Every structure is written in structure tokens, then in C-alpha cells.
Amino acid sequence: MSRFIEVPARMLPPETLDALLEAFVTRQGYDTTDTGAGMDGWVVELKQQLERHELIIAHDLELEMTEVMTLAQWRSFGRDLADDEEEGDY
């Protein structure tokens, strides 16, 4: 079984998704004062990036942690988007 799995954003309660996206904004060092919408503006932008498949939500089964990642970060783990399905891991 694979250590990392992709979690579809639609499977998360809205408040959980927002909290994950806010943590991502903070961790990436985004400036929340450069838009009139602040953190809420970034959360909306990141939700759009999730819809465009530019970001993913990954769950680490070993550490039991869930994180938002860019595709580059996901690939740094040696993963492609459909790896789980190709390997038969669900």
C-alpha cells in the first residue's frame, strides 16, 4: 500500500478545507495584506487552483497528516496523480 493518497477536496467538510488552505497560505508565506480580501481571497484562489488540478490535497498514512501540495511538491515524492489507481491502492 502507498504511503500517500490524494484526497478529493469535495470529500472534506468546508471548514476543514478552509483550515487546510489557510495553513498552506501561511506555510508558503503568502502576503495576506496585498489583496483587499486578505486570507479569504487566498482561500478562494486556492480553491480555484484545486479545481484546475494545480494543487492537490494529500494524506500521509504513516504520519496521519493531511496537507495541501503543489504538483511539484507531490511529484517530489515520486508520485503522479493517478499512481494510486494504477497500483490498485484505494
UniProtKB/TrEMBL annotation:
UniProt xrefs under InterPro entries: UPF0270, YehU-like_sf
Family from the record: Belongs to the UPF0270 family.
Protein name: YheU family protein
Organism: Vreelandella andesensis
